[in-house]
Amino acid sequence: QVQLVESGGGLVQAGGSLRLSCAASGSISSINPMGWYRQAPGKQRELVTAIVSGSSTNYADSVKGRFTISRDNAKNTVYLQMSSLKPEDTAVYYCYANLYGIVHWGQGTQVTVSS
């Protein structure tokens, strides 16, 4: 079992930046992948990005070049650096962790981008 706590969401103007953090309750060194989903009002939850040990990453086309995921195994934390934010990035962002085939979710953090 792993518990995930997101932080760093908020309100930002278009073109701005935010950094989300996802702190895990235990070691993340064996958790692969970890990443972020998001869900906008009236839309399905979609994968934003994921990272595995060794820093292999993938990104949704809509965020490539603007978002960067990273992980710090020593701090049991995954980060999402978001830049050049757009109003369409507005959503609740959820951290997830796949531990031995079982997916764990954080509670979500709201990101709102104003135009």
Task: Describe this structure as you would to a colleague.
The chain is mainly β and 115 residues long. The chain is 0% helix and 55% strand. The chain contains no helices and eleven strands. The strands form two sheets. Strands 2, 4, 5, 6, 9, 10 and 11 form a seven-stranded mixed sheet that branches. The radius of gyration is 13 Å and the shape is globular. The mean pLDDT is 94.
Which quaternary structure do these chains form?
Answer: single chain
Categorize the overall geometry.
Answer: globular
Number of helices: 0
Structural class: mainly beta
Helix content: under 10%
Which stretches are poorly predicted, pLDDT < 50 over at least 5 residues? none
How much of the residues is beta strand, in percent?
over 45%
Q: In total, how many beta strands? A: 11
Could you state the order of secondary-structure elements as H and E?
A: EEEEEEEEEEE
Radius of gyration: 13 Å
* Mean pLDDT across all amino acids: 94
Distance between the ends: 40 Å
**What does the largest sheet look like?**
7 strands, mixed
List keywords for this structure.
115 residues, mainly beta, four-stranded antiparallel sheet, globular
Please outline what is shown here.
The protein has 115 residues and is an all-beta fold. The protein has no helices and eleven strands.
Topology (SSEs and partners):
Blueprint: E1 4-7, E2 10-13, E3 18-24, E4 34-39, E5 46-52, E6 56-59, E7 67-72, E8 77-82, E9 91-99, E10 102-105, E11 109-114
Parallel strand pairs: 2-11
Antiparallel strand pairs: 1-3, 3-8, 4-5, 4-9, 5-6, 7-8, 9-10, 9-11
